[in-house]
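Model it.
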Amino acid sequence: MKFTRYYRSLLSTPAMAVERYAKSHESGADIAMVDLEDSVPPALKEEARRLAEEFFTLPSARLARCAVRINTLSGPEGLRDLIALTRYRVKPDLVLIPMAESPRDIEIAAAALAPDCPDTEFLAVVETPLGIEHAPAIAAAGHGLRGLVFGSADYAFAVGARISWEALAHARGRVVNSARGAGVEAMDAPFFEVADLAGLRREAGLARDLGFSGKIAVHPRQLPLITQAFSPDEELLDRARRVVAAGLETGRSVTVVDGVMVGMPFFEASQRLIEQFDPPQPPPVPQQSPAPRRPSAPHHPPHPTTET
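Modeled.
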């Protein structure tokens, strides 16, 4: 499995909820996202675009990578969103493209933003039957695409399935395989039952084991569990250190670590894990000894004087 510090968790905040912007930045999510799509009623889209600019200009925005989910590019609201983003004083780090069904969706967004937002990258939300079928091509679209996001609710409603892990296993597997085949990340859909932390822990563990990089949170209380699920524990880091050490000792030849045969894929995965989650600490800066001082003349208190 792959771990990454950068796509473990994404917290979504409605664009109209301006009072929650700073809390989103301070939540500890790897990605803080302002939403212009599902959480905004049609009549408020223009106001939401105006308000959302503050999400990127607040001082607290420096605490997280900041993203925006635009409206679908198959309608005019998505195109208006792209135009608005080019006018923002501070540009988003990431743009989520919903209802992605072909590489063309990424090409349109990239072409529209490139002149004014050259550093902005993209995540494609795959949440329709056609999107799932075209997931390999979408994942390989390039143009700054950094990953696929699985949208379970829209997909389940479209095919008439339950929103359960078992019912959506095929779609999830296709998203992960498509993303990994193209060398990009894969983020899992939210767990919508906010109060069921045990259910969230189970589903996040299943997503991690399937190969997802992280998971979307619909409430800040979900973030600690999600971050923990998609981060290696100390036992896994210890094993990674032993695997890397064995690879160095054997010249990366096949060998046995803890009774398990390991080879090149194990060495590379362990090295990547250590680089992101167990980086070497910089050596302590040696403290310079103070320069020796020349001995000063002995100090004597002044002799008392006698007044006459």
